[in-house]
Amino acid sequence: MPMDAVTATPSLRRHSLDAVLRHAWQVDAFTASDVIAAIGVTRSTAIDVLDELTARRLLAEMPNARAVGEYSKGRPARRFAFRPEAGVVVGVDAGRGHLTATVADLRGETLATSRLTVDPERDSPERRRRAAEATVEATLKRARRDRSEIVALCAGVPAPVDRDGRSPVHHDRFWERMNPGFIDTFQSWSPVVRVENDATLAAVAEHARGAAADCDDFVALLAGERFGAGICLDGHLLRGKHGGAGETVAFDRVEGVGSAEGLAPRCVEAARAALRSGSLPAQSALHDIDPAAIDAKSVLDLAASGDPGALAVAREVGGALAGVVGIFGSLFDVDRVIVSGAIAAGAAPIITAAIDALPRALDLPAPAIVASTLGADIVSIGAVAAAVDAARDHALDLPVFSLPDDRARA
Q1: Residue 283 · residue 302 · CB < 8 Å
Q2: For residues 89 and 151, is the Cβ–Cβ distance under 8 A?
């Protein structure tokens, strides 16, 4: 957000406003006494700040405690509630073959979602920009909200993203196509725009709602077609100068891993190789599938049912996953590695094999390996969560939530 549009608020006052707003953003109806207990401000400060946040249209004053039957004697307590409908946030998952836009209220509750399939072979930066704008516009219409109501927007892309929301130049221009300047594209749509790597947003999602809700040191491993890692250490996301923290091209040089290919193509390749070599057990149902029709879901479904051939494939792929987890454990000392994305739903046989194959010679305790429960929509979930975070961080600086002129002059 352009900082020249921000009106500075005195630091102590700002601290109180921020603290009370953060409390209000997370709870249902509350009183000044609740704020005093949670934040530690004086009663006069609590009442003054609550009045200001109400004037800014971020809070609404509710019927008092006596009116709702919660108070019977003395002066009834004033009750307040956050207004999640005061604006909307937008999360965009701009994947290689799809664009998904989600419009949510200020607490992240989904109002509408739209999805557009993209042909990667006919993609270009300009087409991708237009498609992203059209998808967001269609989702706003579906949610019956307007562009003027957007408070924050976050887009996730399969490319490194630096602190300014831009991606470095790739030798085949792939990153430029995936992130064709979305930070500029959406400046006219939203006062706050955030662009992030898709695996970083997977980490945001896992920390907010998933398998890392209780953990500050973890890797969210998008593991479908290619490995991508969102790394969180001490509660902070790692980015790097060019946004390349978590890029996995280095796996090309790691023995036992060999490439950044994800679990899905590894399952397919291992199953086909076993068929070609004749090493599959005779009773394996993989024999009944046309090699050209084998996909990861079929292999993993068979492995989950105990098929010996599919279990052998899962053990082979699990060995490679163990190598990946061992690298993250050694480099970053994380508590857990979360296998994320659509493939996580069927990845239990691979994860079991990876746990068995984890290197025993690691100096540090090996990370736990767990499956995400957030499914194929994890990047969208993370994009919305990141947009909510951005809205909360900047709300007091946005014109839409500025004080009315009469209050500002007082």
Answers
A1: no
A2: yes
Look at residue 3 and tell me whether its pLDDT is greater than 90: no
Residue 48 tokens read as: 């003054």
- The answer to whether the beta carbons of residues 85 and 105 sit under 8 Å apart is yes
pLDDT 10s digits, 149-178: 999 999 999 999 999 999 999 888 999 999
Amino acid identity of 363? D
Task: Could you list the beta-strand ranges (E) of 70-200.
Answer: 79-82, 88-94, 98-105, 110-117, 150-157, 193-197
Query: For helices 43-55 and 32-39, what crossing angle results, to 10°?
Result: 110
pLDDT score at 167? 96
In order of 193, 306, 394, the CA distances from 397 in angstroms are 14, 57, 5
| 233-255 pLDDT, tens digit each | 999 999 999 999 999 999 999 98
In sequence order, the 6+-apart residues with CB closer than 8 A to the CB of 394 are 1, 152, 191, 192
Provide the β-strand partners of residue 156. Answer: 93, 196
